[in-house]
Amino acid sequence: xxxxxxxxxxxxxxxxxxxxxxxxxxxxxxxxxxxxxxxxxxxxxxxxxxxxxxxxxxxxxxxxxxxxxxxxxxxxxxxxxxxxxxxxxxxxxxxxxxxxxxxxxxxxxxxxxxxxxxxxxxxxxxxxxxxxxxxxxxxxxxxxxxxxxxxxxxxxxxxxxxxxxxxxxxxxxxxxxxxxxxxxxxxxxxxxxxxxxxxxxxxxxxxxxxxxxxxxxxxxxxxxxxxxxxxxxxxxxxxxxxxxxxxxxxxxxxxxxxxxxxxxxxxxxxxxxxxxxxxxxxxxxxxxxxxxxxxxxxxxxxxxxxxxxxxxxxxxxxxxxxxxxxxxxxxxxxxxxxxxxxxxxxxxxxxxxxxxxxxxxxxxxxxxxxxxxxxx
Length: 376
Known about the structure:
Keywords: 4Fe-4S, Iron, Iron-sulfur, Metal-binding. The chain is of the alpha/beta class and 376 residues long. It has 15 helices and 16 strands.
């Protein structure tokens, strides 16, 4: 059995967060169960982009503060690192409020700017992963609970994609991002390279709608914690009301026999699930209807079966972030406007995820529109 602690923290008041964290960790045996004196402990938050904490794009700094405190109390040496999706590491750390907390709490910021080649554990034979991620004595995963237009939810397992350094993320999106099942397998194989010792989820204010960068903050008032990241994801999705058929990572974990996917083998402690569930959690835009469709038809009807990103000229400042974020380089600027090559576009929505102005919309293909009307 796996244990996932669920505790209530209604707001980011430092004392309230600290008390909820203490209760959650006590249910798991305390931080001493996961950290030994003198160990270098890498804390890996979500540092997607340089956004203010109230935008709910990144892990909130008060959650980070509470974890650093517990690591130091257990005698560990806290390090805080990630590789942002867009922007420099220091800039993201400052804007998100995490750099200030790291300085105040006596921790150390560690940028993921050096990669180490390691053999893969399955389909992907080689991966380049951040050196600090591999070399730390302990790893604490500190994700934000958010929706994700490609994978439906980003939480514990998806947060570990940040172990891939900088521009290499685009290469993996290009290699695996056109197929959600394949990308889910990639995420799980990254997870298996170095499973976190502990995962703690910032669900105090989550993100719903068109996450992970352009959704809306949604108060949930929750802290989740557990030793198995897949099991933590399963409980997080349950509390947000996300149906299993939309959870690509969890479905892939079941198919591959990766421990943690079976809800019947997960015990929750602390707040009862019925008291923690959030009603009407708004999911991301349905971007395809390819379930169960033969491959040869998917390829022929792809333009009609999927949604695609579209520019909003009124909000676009032509900053170039979407051009840099696009793995297949399907975006260009012509006559002062964005232009998309939809034959090259792989529908990964990295452009929407990393647009600093939220100025990219979504347009459904004809068959996708018809299916939505039929379901209504």
